Amino acid sequence: MVALVITLALFFDFTNGFHDTANAMATPIATGAIKPKTAVALAAVLNLVGAFLSTEVAKTVSGGIIKEGSDGIQITPDIIFAGLMGAILWNMITWLKGLPSSSSHALFGGLIGAAIAGIGIHSINFESLLQKVILPAIFAPVIAAAVAYLCTRLAYALTARHDPETGSKLTQKRGGFRTGQIFTSSLVALAHGTNDAQKTMGIITLVLIAAGSQQAGSGPQFWVIAACALAIAVGTYAGGWRIIRTMGSGLTDVKPAQGFAAESSTASAILASSHLGFALSTTQVASGSVIGSGLGRRGTSVRWGTAGKIALGWLFTLPAAGIVGALTALLVKTGVVGVVIAAVAGTGAVLYMFLHSRKSHVGHHNAVEVEEAGQAVRFRKKKAIAVSRTNNKKKGGQ
Amino acid sequence: MKWLELVQVAGATLVAAVTVVVLYSLGVRLTAIAGDVQERRPGWVRPLAYVCFALCGVAVLFGLYLIIPYFSK
Fold first, then answer.
1. Alpha helices, DSSP H only, in B1-73?
2. Per-residue pLDDT for A16 more than 80?
3. Between the N and C ends of chain B, which has fewer C-beta atoms within 10 Å?
4. A46 close to A193: Cβ distance less than 8 angstroms
């Protein structure tokens, strides 16, 4: 059972990686700042580095949402197994739909559902749930969007150039932001590594402690850290192209200055929150930033239809993962046969979704669609430069 | 309720993001001015642009320094 749970936890880490590549790399790919394949490779390496940097978060995984400890309920590998099942299946479904949804919420949802079905409703600390999951879910996108909006405004205001005599627009020369995007998106990837790989480390450590092969209260062992770092890096490299498409071009058309502002906000928000102990979801922060930067540039429209679909997905994350987790917990309760059935059914569902995704394959080659969108923007920009050149008889260019 | 922490996170996010974006934007702006061919421009514009980029980099590194527990211990 322990080995099974560890395998499952590492697979969850993998889905977490490819689900969240989009958070860091969707905007630079969309603006053409980095080539798609290079982008995911860069993100993978930085996730790997990030996972090694800090193991502070790993200590508290469920964060007191499930009353664990000596006076509370003993959390068993069975419950964790069921919770992971719920989280993985929900991650796969949202990936298939191209929805960026929070992997941590899926994990919490799965664990909560499993605990309710396996132990009872009294095992859940609802106050803690409200404080650590639901309120941050409301505020994360709002904070990120507000900061990204302000930053986009600032970036455009500071680089807007007008001819002092005629007042007509000069060539803006904002190409520098494209280079900047490489750094800011790297920061986001690093932040993701320090944040999300931790959760799996925490889970595996929890299982090892529950199984009695590790002392309670000790941190994650080195092989656990290494395995988790590797799993999330490989997952990131696999790249969730469907979600990259949604984030990069589905919400709003991103230009380099916007992308730069959005990524700076995302990175600041994630790093600040994980450092100050008010955990915000990477995905929700990143989506909020993209929307905020879309609002910040004049002449851009935000596709609220897509934004609404994403928000709806967030609403369903906790209950949906919870239901799968609960069903799995009930199956596992029946004994070894139940575990086997659950494992087989889970693997089957994942395989089915994978095969189904092959029918309409979205890979780095037709995330090219995204890249083309970026090139179209660039092309238009060059034309605009040409126009302003003839208008102003001024020299200059990219 | 942890409202104070929420405000802290929002504030830190705002300060960090605005610092980076303002410095980088200034750098981009100054580079653009330095690149103007026909204008007679003061010689300090391009170096100043590089100073802006450098300060931006320092700000990011300082943020990382604060966050990575290995350094702040």
1. 3-35, 45-67, 69-72
2. yes
3. C
4. yes
Q: At A373, is the pLDDT very low, low, confident or very high (cuts 50, 70, 90)?
A: very low
Q: How many CB atoms lie within 10 A of CB A268?
A: 34
In the block, tokens 């450092």 appear at A275
Taking CB atoms and an 8 Å cutoff, what residues of chain B touch A275?
66-67
The total domain count for chain A is: 1
Q: Measured between alpha carbons, how far is residue A278 from residues A64, A286, B64 in Å?
A: 14, 16, 18
Q: What is the distance between the alpha carbons of residues B59 and B19, in angstroms, rounded to a whole number? A: 8
CA distance B59 to chain A (A): 11
pLDDT at residue A389 is higher than 70: no
C-alpha Rg value of chain A to the nearest Å: 22
Contact A151 B17 (CB under 8 A): yes
Residue pair A281/A59 in contact (Cβ under 8 Å)? The answer is no
- Give chain B positions within 8 Å (CB) of A174: 28, 32
Sequence letter at residue A152: T
What is chain A's length?
Answer: 398
Residue A378 has pLDDT above 50, yes or no: no
Dist CA A127 CA A52 (whole Å): 32
Q: For residue A375, how many other CB atoms are within 10 A of its CB?
A: 13
Q: Do B13 and A183 touch (CB under 8 A)?
A: no
CB pairs under 8 A between A and B: 120
User: A61 in a domain, yes or no?
Assistant: yes
The complex's ipTM works out to 0.85
Give the domain extent around A200: 2-391
Between A158, A257, A265, which is nearest B17 by CB?
Answer: A265
Q: Report CA B5 to chain centroid distance, whole Å.
A: 24
Does any domain span residue A398? Answer: no
Task: State chain A's maximal CA–CA distance in angstroms.
Answer: 82
CA A149 to chain centre: 20
Q: Which residues of A134-143 are buried (b: 16+ CB within 10 A; e: fewer)?
A: ebbbebbbeb
